[in-house]
Amino acid sequence: MSEQPISPISNSIVKKISACLLFGLEFSALFLLLGNGGNIPWLPPVFVFPVIGIALLASVLFPFIWHSLERKQKINSIKIYGFLYGAIRYCIAFNIMAFGWKKFYGLQFIVPSEIAQMPMNQQTGEWLTWFYFGYSHTFGIIIATIQIIGGFMLLFRQTVLAGAIILFSLLLNLTLINVFYDMNAGALMQSVLLTIGVLFLLLLDYKKLVDFFFKTKSDLPSLNINNKLLKNVLRFSALVLSLLFTIYLRAIMK
Fold this sequence. Notes:
The protein has 254 residues and is mainly α. The chain contains ten helices and no strands. Helix 1 packs antiparallel against helix 2 and helix 3 packs antiparallel against helix 6 (137-153).
């Protein structure tokens, strides 16, 4: 029996566990989206939740089976990891693009008229948020376009990193909104799982990100100041002076 090629995750049970758990979570998020709160007759909760339970249980058990079979050279870790990586990207892309298409077809940011007519101080944070975002249809379309393009970029190896960078900023912002504006548990769960999934994709290219953002020298124009201390003083002056300006404004407005 010929030896298998060395796997990038050989002898790493942690990487196997993380890949399997991420797939289980992203698959669950996608299946919850498809279930759509029990509104689809052919996909009732009685079917959705058992499938999710089985998927999560399998994602916990499979890494150890995988690790054991790899040691016995009875499984190709490269192919398994490649499948999981592709499946994670597909689940995230499908989920994010679905939310984008919902905005195009008016299935999000809908506020019932009886809620919209209530005084602001009597509405929940969730309804206030939906009313605010739904006020501008153009803004909603812009967000939807970013979600669709970013999600589609995850499906190509050449653009997956760029897509993940674009989507991470958007998803992190949406997650913070869902947390601090008391959105429903389903919306919060979706945003958290998608954010974690996109962060996972980013961390796989951690070295590239560090090299690009922190080690690559910029060709932008410079002040040509050789004194490092003076440079740092100028940099921190923007931070301190802007704070002092704000404190001054607050003082004179009282």
